[in-house]
Amino acid sequence: MSEIEEVSYWCGGRLPPTSGPAADLVVLDTEGLPPLASLAAWVMEARTPTIVAARALEQGARMAYFFDETGTVVGRQLQLHRMPGDDTPDRLGDDLQVMNVGGHRVAALLAGDVVVPELGRILALSGVDLVLGLALPMLPAYLGLWSQVQQNQFIGLAGTAPAPSVYLPCEATPDGSGTLEWSHRHGWWVKTLDWGVLQAVRGDTPLLAALNPDVYLTHPWWSRKASDADAI
Amino acid sequence: MPTRFELVVAQRLLAVIARWERLRLRLPLRQAPSPMPWQRTHLTVAAAQWRLDPVTRFPSWVDQLVDYFEEAHRRSVALLVFPEDMAIPLLGLVSGRIRVTHGQALSSGETGQWLYALAPRVERLYVDVFSRLSRAYGMTVVAGSALTLTRSRLFNRALVFGPDGTLLVAQAKLHLLPLERDWGICPGTRLEEQPVGPLPLFTAVCHDASFFETYRMAEHAGAEIMAIPIADPDVDYQDSKARRGAWARTQETGLPSIVGAATGELYGIRLTGKAAVYVPLALTDDGGGIVAQSASPDGEGLVSATLNLNQLAAFRRELVPQAREELVARWLAPRYDRMRESSPT
Known about the structure:
The complex is a heterodimer of chains A (232) and B (345). Chain A has 232 residues and is an alpha/beta fold. Chain A has 5 helices and 12 strands. Chain A has helices at residues 36-46, 117-125, 145-152, 195-204, 213-218; strands spanning 6-11, 25-30, 50-54, 63-67, 73-78, 99-101, 104-110, 130-134, 155-158, 165-167, 179-181, 187-192. The radius of gyration of chain A is 17 Å and the shape is globular. The two termini of chain A are 22 Å apart. Chain B has helices at residues 4-23, 58-74, 108-118, 123-137, 178-182, 212-220, 239-242, 246-253, 309-319, 325-342, and strands at residues 43-51, 79-81, 140-150, 153-161, 167-172, 201-203, 225-230, 257-266, 269-271, 276-278, 290-293, 301-307. In chain B, 50% of the residues are buried. Chain B is α/β, with parallel strands linked by helices. At the A-B interface, helix 2, helix 3 and helix 5 of A face helix 6, helix 8 and helix 10 of B.
């Protein structure tokens, strides 16, 4: 399998009628989830690893399916947190999926999960290079996935909120904004991911090397209750 | 590299100068105002933007500090925050006599040797000045940070003085820039207890605010206000880069941040930044999350704002998302453990 260089991204409707532009990874951020059999058939035709997320609730949950290029479901990500003032979804996930695609570790954060910094850190420390923000609420600039990217040095890809965007560390974008913005139109977008520039930034300013786990572990802000096995 | 002889001569010279300046230190005789009953609904805070150019005349440096305190007093400020590395410019008191001179390019190793030898020598002078000014003006003051030696290791510590001039908190910087590591500075090994009188204040230093962990720990320890002294070695200030630190942490946690910012040029390193007071987006009229900010990332000034801590606490309680503890315990804690085990001792 080749490295992810091109990602094609569908946002704005149900299953697109065609497989779309050639790419190494396809992301479908849809209004709802078609039946799994239809999705599998669609992916088989596209012959590309595909991640499909539902912006609307499906069976009481917000979720994303990960398919390999044969149309087999290889993972599923549910939204993990309810946001204050929002009693949806009914059902939350208990698992954080990381997929290997083209030599890269890829994960998805759904809806309000994108503003929980612990999740971005968990993914970064799991070696994730690409995080997809799916089914996102509208957020102001510099929040959500942008902020996760800045404090974890991975690439972020979002179809919405506040606009379809690729996020990189500020040092990796020509204007220093940390955002390579796409157009606002719905439909297919294709984006080339520049892993070289990400590696250069990680080499020049290795942010995660400054983490101080000794201190965190002596001042945990989480419960000390026994935890389950490390699942990721 | 400086020779041992050069370092010893400079150390002794600086010690003499510092002692002399402490002896002749004259500060305003202003009586501290009667302590005002502290109100959660009206806490006025201020952040200083200050040029860290090397100090060559100590009385002028003190006079400038007095001007800031006077202005803060005029605005009824209860909490005043200065930038990171406030004490380092005092090494300028021996510049001209040693090779640590303004604008002279030194290697990281050379800079580290000079800092190790000299910086702790000015700490007492710096503490004296801020202690007296805090008492004179009856303010809680985050005096920025100073380099200090503890068991032969160099730390960058933020110092907080109470309205009676007492040193209340010394918090070492926990997350270092590569440049600081090159200088031989060590990261802090613990989060100090930070009981700042009635103020639920927590202080962390600059890059600490690039990591959400700092704010989470502070919040867990009871913080309701964050003071962040910064000195950003970035010649090319941009709002987007500035949004990666305290501003972002305020949006994640709902804790307001008071940022004292360094500018100027410190031994060849250009510093930019804006003094600011950040609150959650929803609590600002324009949705920008900034209630006070200096106009330029260069130069100097004082910005202030009045915070309503009751309103902020209610906002955090009702509208700030919290991570699910069981997920953090299950996934994040083992990763910190793994990092600790794999990091060089």
